From TrEMBL:
GO cellular component: cytoplasm
Occurrences of domain Peripheral subunit-binding (PSBD) (ranges): 140-177
EC code: 2.3.1.-
Record-stated family: Belongs to the 2-oxoacid dehydrogenase family.
Region of interest called Disordered, as start-end residue ranges on this chain: 82-138
Cofactor: (R)-lipoate
Keywords: Acyltransferase, Lipoyl, Pyruvate, Transferase
Protein name as annotated: Dihydrolipoamide acetyltransferase component of pyruvate dehydrogenase complex
Amino acid sequence: MPDFRLPDLGEGLTEGEIVGWLVSVGDEVSIDQPVVEVETAKAVVEVPCPYEGVVSARFGEPGEKLAVGSVLLTVGEPEQSGSGNVLIGYGTSETPRRRRRRESNAQHASVQRSEHPNSTLGTPEPATVPAPPPATAPAVISPLVRQLARENGLALDRIEGTGPGGVIRRADVERELAARATPLSTESAGRRIPLRGLRGAVAEKLATSRREIPEATVWVDVDATDFLAARAALPTVSLLALLARFTVLGLKKFPELNSRVEGDEVVVLDQVHLGFAAQTERGLVVPVVRDAQSLTTTELAAAIAAHTASAREGKLTPAAMTGGTFTVNNYGVFGVDGSAAIINHPEAAILGLGRIIDRPWAVDGQLAVRKVAQLTLAFDHRVCDGGTAGGFLRFVADCVESPIKALADL
């Protein structure tokens, strides 16, 4: 019986945390069928099994970490179908029924395991079909909902589910959290949020950036009236995509900002792997559009839209969130005017766009109401001086103020 081990998930990742099982002992699996959700420092991914057969053992519980190469599943020979010799108690009619129960068994089995904290990593489940769960065992809509409840110390059997058949949804857990929220007192320390997985990786990168990068910030107000008009004329191109287009043009003129520091050298990079900030339910992630310098405006906009959708669905691979050389951020969507952003280590700079609002602005010597926004650039002062940084920011600002002229040069 082959053992399926946690595969190398790429980008130097050495471990993953089990979020939830998608199969139970006794289930039949096919080649490339997802069998477990694993959270790495980059994303939550569904891990497919390369074998076909019956799950005879499972290793690890939700919330436990496994090193790359650790055994996840043991897969036995598939059951025989049709007529022929069968073992007593394992008739051919059992297979379709087991398949129909696969999803519900996976949910109930996860609940049963979470109620027995003394379970240890590496102890396989018995090679039998799990017994039906108790009538009071709660069902959840996804393993991520169970994880949210566990991290906040909520008992699922005390939460009223509003999903079909009483299934507990994310909104139900969040409603319970809101109901329990009270002002802090001397006896209360609030709730604890573990810095692990994606949240922990982001925290570590930000801390490293603050420790190692001597950053400086420059900013400029821009008349974004024509910028909004260009966006309206290009329905498939978002404001962030337009800003990304102008950023790539600026990096062609000021390549020092598309670099990183390695030891006692500044390495100026030829390719622009453009990262952009995307807000998801799991927090802020930075997908990367590779070789952005070779894409047209429409292609760049499509790539950003596709990466954003994947990020919000939790389907980004670790490779899609690493290797960036420069980051853009439209923090105006949060209703703020400006921000001294933290550079996404080991990159050399990050460009941000604040909210676009009506403000008085001088146009041809006359006061007018225009759509005005603020652009900010945080940069590593080791890779360039203020003149280079200011030149780049002014170039991008000019593109925002006269987008048609900038796009005509492409």
